Amino acid sequence: MSDKPLAPAIEGWHTMEVKPHLIGTQCKECGSYFFPKNTAYCRNPACDSTEFSEVELSRTGHIWSYTNACYKPPEPFVATDPFKPYAIAAVQLEKEQMVVLGQVIEGVECEQLKVGMPVELVLEALHETDDDIKMTWKWKPVTR
Amino acid sequence: MSNEIAILGVGMHPWGKWGHNFVQYGVAAAREALQDANVPWQDVKFVSGGATVRCGYPGYVAGATFAQALGWQGAEVNTSYAACASGSQALAAARNKILAGGCDVALVVGADTTPKGFLAPAGGYRPEDPDWVRFYLGITNPTYFALYARRRMDLYGDTLDDFAAVKVKNSRIGSKNPRARYRKCFTAEDVAASAMVADPLRLMDICATSDGGAALIVSSVEYAQRIGKGDAPRVAAISTTTPTFASSVVEMPDIATDSAAAAGVEAHAFRSTLPLKAYEEAGIGPEDVDLAEVYDLSTALELDWIEDLRLAPRGEAAALLRAGDTAIGGKIPVNVSGGLACFGEAVPAQALAQICELTWQLRGEAGDRQVAGARVGITANQGLFGHGSSVIVKR
Ligand SMILES: [Zn+2]
Fold first, then answer.
1. Residue B156 contacts residue B300 (beta carbons within 8 Å)
2. Which residues fall within 8 angstroms of residue B186, CB to CB, at 6 or more apart?
3. CATH of the domain at B78
4. Which residue of B has its CA nearest to A33?
5. Domain chopping of chain A, boundaries
6. At residue A20, what are phi and psi to the nearest 5 degrees?
7. Which residues have their alpha-adjacent CB atom under 5 A from ion ligand 1?
8. Residues A74, B137: C-beta atoms closer than 8 Å
């Protein structure tokens, strides 16, 4: 990898720390979480709040399900040449009681995953531009 | 008072990749339905079209487009867009019109021409659009179906062989359907030899997109009786309910689900709530159903639907499949039309095509595909943005 500066692929969706967090919002009235951020009207039908706090979501969870991408997705995905398949996981966050999708880190294949497996959030390159390396969140099996 | 309406006639343009204008398919289907109903076009006072978003302005005003193509005769028109449920929503509009006394006879019609290649979102940097976000992050349509399929494997012990068996079953019966696009009998070996797209789903586990058109002529029960068709199959229920917060299954094109963290909020699975209103409205239960047409966007999804429709307890659809009970001659035949596996998806026509099949089945006119003694059928489908439907047809 080059020594270009690191930049988030999508601005403001996650922190850039070594142990990153997704950034969502939480309704100040009912406590519902939202990712991506919702700052307009609470979507809980029993709540009419318009007040939200920006919150860091749990950076660990359990796999709800998983798959992979064997073929190159269409744009705006920026593929390597040749295309390298990658795994994808849907991860249940306990506190937030929601499921968040993301790629799984490079080098981990479906055979190594299982529903219920604990994972944590990390950052990895999504693609490079002329100016920087675009980083995104990925799920990584927790090994101990 | 009954909420039922009669299905006087049905028609379909064969599914395929014909490359014609969508209007042509819709008109062919409508004419076949009119002929089947033996109702003059001039007697149709409401035309309810399923919109297509891929064919320019005429597709956005499909009801009017079809009415003009069949010859303006002063009928009122409606156009419904509800993704995969567009046809059902157009049918619901026609039912409301009829039950409110606004007309005796209505035409419900949907047709589509599919673009070549992958339908990708507009370019640029547009993180406010969930469809843009998920493609940027490398999450395509098969991703979602594969997540559901893999969950079945890990939770219920479903196997790749089970998924292939769905394809084999549907291709065997679909090969006898002259309106189906794919009419080859595929084997489990064919499925296993097709390329892996999104583990555990292979190319042959996932449905294609097709051109096609389907139409229904529906009327009040009184009108049906007046013209000697009092025993025509009836639409007994239409459910087009939206999800309930918190929707807990990640759905295309979203990157995350609702959160069920708030007090008093429970997690709901959209697909399984859809049929509830249909059963309630029809006043019947799953045990009364003789056959089902479900949206097998993937082979594994057919198994999910069987459970969502309560035709099997959760996690037991594969057992039903293995026993041959979802095939023709089994306890509860599913997708005897051949399903999306043999048709490919023509979005605004597909929900209507499901009803066409049930109508033929309930009239005993399905030929080689006939489910003996079928009296009650149910459909189910789900598409983008909280759209979905389940329709019950009975005789
Ligand atoms: Zn709230």
1. no
2. B167, B168, B171, B204
3. 3.40.47.10
4. B259
5. 58-141
6. -80, 165
7. A 27, 29-30, 32, 42, 44, 47, 49
8. no
The highest-level CATH class for domain A58-141 is: mainly beta
Average pLDDT over residues B50-63: 94
- Model confidence over B287-342: pLDDT tens digits? 999 999 999 999 999 999 999 999 999 999 999 999 999 999 999 999 999 999 99
Amino acid at the residue B332: I
> Which residues of chain A does B146 touch, with a Cβ-Cβ cutoff of 8 Å?
67-68
Give chain B's domain count: 1
Distance from CA of A28 to the nearest CA of B (A): 11
Amino acid at position B319, single letter: A
Distance (Å) from the alpha carbon of A5 to chain B's nearest alpha carbon: 20
Q: Which residues of A touch B204 (CB under 8 A)?
A: none
Q: How far apart are CA A86 and CA A73, in angstroms?
A: 11
- How far does residue A99's CA lie from ligand 1's centre (Å)? 18
Residues 6+ apart with CB under 8 A from B1: none
Question: Does B84 fall in a domain?
Answer: yes
**Residue B271 domain flag:** no
> Touching check for B147 and chain A: CB below 8 Å?
yes
Report how many Cβ contacts below 8 Å link chain A to chain B: 151
A-facing residues of B in 207-266 (CB < 8 A) are: 245-246, 248-250, 255-265
B61-120 confidence digits (pLDDT tens): 999 999 999 999 999 999 999 999 999 999 999 999 999 999 999 999 999 998 765 566
Per the structure, the complete domain to which residue B90 belongs is given by 5-117+210-226
